[in-house]
Amino acid sequence: MIIPVRCFSCGKPIAGHYEEMKSRMKKGEKLDEIFQHMGITRYCCRRMLLAHVDVMDDVLKYNA
Predict the structure, then answer these.
(1) Is 59 annotated as a binding residue?
(2) Is 44 assigned to a binding site?
(3) Binding residues for Zn(2+), per the UniProt record (predicted)?
(4) Is 45 within any annotated ligand binding site?
């Protein structure tokens, strides 16, 4: 997993919230409630977490 450590727009640390967001989404919680509980209120930070795509597993298939 390679998620940006900080939001590109405002600089708030966001990497620590990704695993919690992912696990709570699997449990079926609403995204708005998850973000409010974690204290992520800015749209730029929400965008960083929502738009992230895990590509590390795909990249590791190809050896150099």
Answers:
(1) no
(2) yes
(3) 7, 10, 44-45
(4) yes
